[in-house]
Design goal:
Length: 302
C-alpha cells in the first residue's frame, strides 16, 4: 500500500517515528524546527509489512490490523508530546504500510524538510534494509536532517562546508536560513588537505605554486562569505580554513555546531543514486546533519 503524498501538508516538517528510544529526540527536534519555520509537524510511521512476512511467514489481515493499531498508538503518543511542548503547533500524523525509506522519500515531495533519527527505522527494518537515514538522504526530493542523541552546544553556529570552485548555492542558502531562524551565526568551513608532493617535485618553485593556489582559494572563500553576508546582513559569518580532508574537518567542527550542512548531488542514472563521500562520511559521525539535495545537470545528447 503506497502512501498518498497528498496527506502530507505542504511545507510541513516530516519526522519518521518507530517507537524506539530515538523518537523522543528526533520528534522534539522536529517540533522545534516546525515552530521556527511556522509550519506544521507531520509524524510518519512506516510499516514494512513485506519484511514482517519475510521474517515471520504469511501475514494475515488481522495481523496487519494489530500492527497498524500498535503503530497508531506510538504515533499518537509522539503527537501528544509534541503538542504539549508546542500547544499552538498544528500536528498531523499517518501510518503507512510501506518500507520506511520509500515512504519518507514519497513524503519529501511535499515536505519542507524530513527529520530522521540516526538509526534505521524499526528493529526489523533496520536489520533488513540497512540505513534508512542514508537511503532517504540520497533519494529525498528536499533537505533531510539526521539527528543523533548528542545534544548540540547551545548557541553554536550552523556549520556549512564550502568549495569556491564548485559551490551549490542551495546548500549555503539552507545554512543561512537555518541560522536566521535560530538567531545564530554561520561558520563556513573550507577544507583542503595539504598534499604531499612527490620527491622529484619537492622544490621551492612547486611549493610556491601550491601556496599561491591555496591563497587564491582562500580569497575566493572570503568573497563567497562576503556575498552571502550581504544577502543575510542579520546573520554573523565567519570563515575557517582547515588543512585536512573535508570529512575530518566537518566532523571536528560538528562537536561545536548546532547543525552541519552538506550537499548531495542528485545525479541522473541508477549508478548515481547514492550519497557523495563527504555527505556520507559526515552523516555517520556528526550529531546533527542536514543533507541538502543539489540538482546536477543532465548529460546532453551528442
Amino acid at each position: 500500500m503506497s502512501q498518498d503524498v497528498e496527506a502530507v501538508p505542504p511545507g510541513a516538517v516530516v519526522v519518521g517515528v518507530d517507537g524506539t528510544d530515538k523518537d523522543q529526540r528526533s520528534v522534539r527536534w522536529a517540533a522545534d524546527e516546525a515552530e521556527r519555520r511556522k509550519a506544521g509537524l507531520h509524524l510518519l510511521y512506516a510499516v514494512a509489512w513485506t519484511e514482517y512476512s519475510r521474517v515471520y511467514g504469511a501475514v494475515t489481515s488481522a495481523d496487519l490490523d494489530r500492527i497498524h493499531g500498535a503503530a497508531k498508538r506510538i504515533v499518537d503518543d509522539a503527537a501528544r508530546q509534541a503538542r504539549e511542548a508546542h500547544p499552538d503547533l498544528v500536528v498531523t500524523s499517518a501510518v503507512v504500510m510501506e518500507d520506511a525509506a520509500t515512504a519518507l522519500v514519497h513524503a519529501s515531495r511535499h515536505a519542507g524538510v524530513i527529520i530522521l533519527g540516526a538509526r534505521g527505522l524499526g528493529r526489523i527494518a533496520g536489520r533488513l534494509l540497512g540505513s534508512v537515514s542514508q537511503k532517504v538522504s540520497a533519494h529525498a526530493h528536499g533537505p533531510v536532517v539526521v539527528v543523533r542523541d548528542t545534544v548540540p552546544v547551545p548557541g553554536a553556529p550552523v556549520v556549512v562546508g564550502v568549495d569556491p570552485r564548485d559551490q551549490p548555492p542551495e546548500v549555503i542558502q539552507f545554512a543561512f536560513e537555518e541560522a536566521r531562524r535560530r538567531g545564530l551565526g554561520v561558520r563556513m568551513v573550507h577544507a583542503a588537505p595539504r598534499e604531499r608532493p612527490l620527491p622529484e617535485f619537492r622544490d621551492a618553485e612547486v611549493e610556491h605554486m601550491r601556496e599561491t593556489a591555496a591563497t587564491e582559494e582562500a580569497k575566493a572563500v572570503e568573497r563567497l562569505a562576503a556575498e552571502w553576508s550581504r544577502r543575510y546582513p542579520d546573520v554573523p559569518v565567519e570563515v575557517h580554513e582547515a588543512r585536512r580532508h573535508p570529512v575530518e574537518a566537518l566532523v571536528e567542527e560538528a562537536a561545536n555546531a548546532s547543525v552541519v550542512v552538506v550537499g548531495s548531488r542528485a545525479r541522473h542514472g541508477l549508478a548515481e543514486l547514492r550519497l557523495g563521500s563527504v555527505a556520507r562520511g559526515v552523516l555517520y559521525e556528526a550529531p546533527v546533519v542536514a543533507v541538502v539535495r543539489v540538482e546536477a545537470a543532465r548529460p546532453t545528447a551528442a
